Amino acid sequence: MNLKLISKGAQAQDVQVSDATFAREYNESLVHQIIVAYMAAGRAGTKAQKTKAEVRGGGIKPWRQKGTGQARAGSIRSPIWVGGGRAFAAKPRDFSQKVNRKMYRAALQAMLSQLARTDRLQVVNGIELEAPKTKLLVQKLKDLNQGDNVLVLVEAFDEKLELASRNLPYVDVLPVSALDPLSLARHDQVLATVGAVRLLEERLA
């Protein structure tokens, strides 16, 4: 399969890429499962409430069972009392879901393939900035005919690109090692360097 190699003021060329990574059939249910699992793993799961048994106090019966005219009560920490425990108290839990490495790789391949099929994945020789300035990155993306919502994939962490993109709400710069399915799903376009594409082929093979 071929991807478009774009550059400023030059006609688009083609870069040959692996069919296994960039020409895979799209599996919507698998992609959905992986994104849900990825988001679930990010949940803190630290909420905690106390049951009647865990709230301090309430060990003595507030009044005798009969003869007072009051409704019977056994503890001031009953869930129906103000200051009482919760009937079904929430406890800390782990929301993460088991995802096999093979499934995770297959989902990324399916998403990259879909982006390539719809011409939303483009390749560039390299993206270099003279200084970590937002306006320089905006101009660079404009020169490459990129929209406002774009994921820039680079071979390795680039501090200048990272700092320049921080003030752009819909532009993210990620090294291949940090690529995740949610980032691919959130952006309209993906702009990858040739080095990043080769690294993706190697990692997802």
Give a short overview.
The chain has 205 residues and is α/β, with parallel strands linked by helices. 34% of the residues lie in helices and 13% in strands.
Structure description:
Helix 4 packs across helix 5 (159-165). Helices cover 34% and strands 13% of the residues. With 205 residues, it is α/β, with parallel strands linked by helices. The chain starts with a strand and ends with a helix. The longest helix is centred in the middle third of the chain and has 17 residues, at 101-117. It is built from 7 helices and 6 strands, in the order E-E-H-H-H-E-H-E-H-E-H-E-H. The protein has helices at 19-22, 28-41, 101-117, 134-143, 159-165, 181-186, 194-204; strands at residues 2-5, 13-16, 121-124, 150-154, 171-175, 189-193. The protein has 2 domains: 2-36 and 98-204, Ribosomal Protein L4, Chain: A (3-Layer(aba) Sandwich), CATH 3.40.1370.10; 48-91, no CATH class. 23% of the residues are buried. Strands 3-6-4-5 form a 4-stranded parallel β-sheet. The protein is elongated. A hairpin with a 7-residue loop joins strand 1 and strand 2. Part of the 50S ribosomal subunit. GO terms for molecular function: rRNA binding; structural constituent of ribosome.
Layout of secondary structure:
Elements: E1 2-5, E2 13-16, H1 19-22, H2 28-41, H3 101-117, E3 121-124, H4 134-143, E4 150-154, H5 159-165, E5 171-175, H6 181-186, E6 189-193, H7 194-204
Parallel strand pairs: 3-6, 4-5, 4-6
Antiparallel strand pairs: 1-2
Helix pairs in contact: 4-5
Protein name: Large ribosomal subunit protein uL4
Function: Forms part of the polypeptide exit tunnel.
GO molecular function: rRNA binding; structural constituent of ribosome
